[in-house]
Specification:
Elements lengths: L3 E2 L5 H10 L5 H11 L12 H10 E2 L4 E7 L6 E6 L5 E9 L2 E5 L3 E3 L14 E4 L2 H15 L5 E4 L9 H11 L12 E5 L3 H8 L6 E5 L5 H7 L8 H15 L4 E6 L7 H14 L5 E6 L14 H10 L3 E4 L13 H9 L1
Parallel strand pairs: 1-2, 6-9, 9-10, 10-11, 11-12, 12-13, 13-14
Antiparallel strand pairs: 3-4, 4-5, 5-6, 7-8
Helix pairs in contact: 1-2, 4-5, 6-8, 9-10
This protein binds S-adenosyl-L-homocysteine.
S-adenosyl-L-homocysteine binds next to strand 10 and strand 12.
Length: 344
């Protein structure tokens, strides 16, 4: 019989198993407290050795292990390469902001969305992450830093909505009062735009922030850099954004990576402003991201970020340029995993 993935379970679910094992109920709470701190086996000091052994027979503890840790000398940002139980690797980035610590986590090993500018997708998708492996990235980072993570962004390796069920289960787990208790309002989920899944997510009653990776002002440009646009047009995507907003009351933010000669002209900014005004009800926010150059893609970062931003603002669209953290440690996702695979 396969073992139960304990970090994917709620305290209540663990309690049911503990009772089935003939152990007293209070053990579940003790064990749950330990696993949320990243402790297992003999580290669970108030659990008798005989029970530790029995737990090992019934459960598996899939905590991502820190394989490489890079700390930025500029701003203290930490980039982790985590090794999973089967030897696969993923990345997470720990960032310190005034409003608290944010962890950027991965949702899949690799990605199959094929965005032309992205390092995570170059080798395709290997497998989905389990809820435990998403939660485990937070637990491992907290254990390593000794600091609490108060905000989570699902902007690491993978497409969260391409691993929908596990992502939703993770969002419920991470926000539980007796769990890590990170409020859903402090969690952002970023998607390249799987329209059917955005519609599903709108019905889940999860007040997260949804970010859409738009990166283009028309279908021609978007299809040339994001294959998903051949399946769902910009118009379909923006209409799903409107119904998401209608159902949840949560405003959507748009990510726009500026790529030289692709999507970064002032006319492009004007076209983007027209597009958003035409299709999006109410005010919206565009987060401009300087391209992190990935050597395999040959795409170059734009020098027009300020011009682009100012054009959007002059046309009534709220826009900011994302502050770049950890630039000395290559903190954008997907690159460390590739390097480590090349070295193996
Ligand atoms: N699959 C999800 C989340 C992962 S990427 C999504 O597509 O949204 C998080 C953000 O970083 C996305 O907006 C993505 O398009 C962007 N991104 C990917 N590669 C990048 C790069 N090389 N430079 C800048 N942004 C990049």
């Amino acid at each position: 019989m396969s073992k139960l993935d304990i970090l994917s379970m709620t305290q209540g679910e663990i309690e049911n198993i503990i009772i089935e094992m003939g152990e007293p109920k209070f053990r579940a709470k003790q064990i749950y407290g330990w696993i949320l701190k990243g402790m297992w086996g003999s580290e669970m000091r108030n659990i008798p050795a005989s029970l530790q052994k029995k737990l090992d027979d019934v459960f598996e503890f899939r905590l991502p292990r820190v394989e490489i840790k890079l700390v930025s000398k500029i701003d203290g940002t930490i980039k982790y390469l985590f090794e999973l139980i089967d030897g696969e690797c993923i990345e997470a980035v720990f960032m310190r902001y005034e409003h608290g610590n944010t962890l950027c986590i991965s949702s899949q090993v690799g990605c199959r969305m094929g965005c032309k500018f992205c390092a995570s997708t170059l080798l395709g998708r290997v497998r989905d992450l389990l809820p435990s492996e998403m939660l485990g990235q937070i637990i491992s980072a907290e254990k390593d830093t000794g600091e609490r993570v108060s905000n989570v962004v699902m902007m690491g390796i993978g497409e969260p909505l391409d691993n929908y069920d596990n992502t939703v289960k993770f969002l419920r787990l991470v926000s539980q009062d007796d769990g890590l208790n990170i409020g859903l309002r402090h969690i952002s989920v970023s998607t390249c735009g799987l329209v059917d899944r955005i519609n599903d997510l709108a019905n889940e009653q999860l007040p997260i922030t949804l970010s859409i990776s738009l990166h283009a002002y028309d279908n021609e440009v978007r299809s040339s850099i994001m294959p998903i646009n051949n399946k769902y047009s910009i118009e379909q995507l923006l209409s799903a954004c409107n119904s998401y907003f209608d159902k949840t009351g949560r405003r959507i933010s748009f990510e726009y990576t500026l790529i030289a000669g692709k999507n970064d002209t002032a006319e492009g900014a004007a076209a983007l402003a027209r597009l958003l005004k035409k299709y999006i009800k109410g005010p919206c926010h565009v987060n401009l991201i300087p391209l992190n150059e990935v050597k395999e893609t040959k795409l170059e970062a734009s020098k027009n970020a300020t011009i682009f931003k100012n054009k959007l603002i002059s046309l009534g669209i709220n826009a900011t340029v994302r502050r770049k953290l950890g630039s000395d440690i290559n903190a954008s996702c997907g690159q460390l995993r590739r390097q480590s695979r090349e070295n193996k």
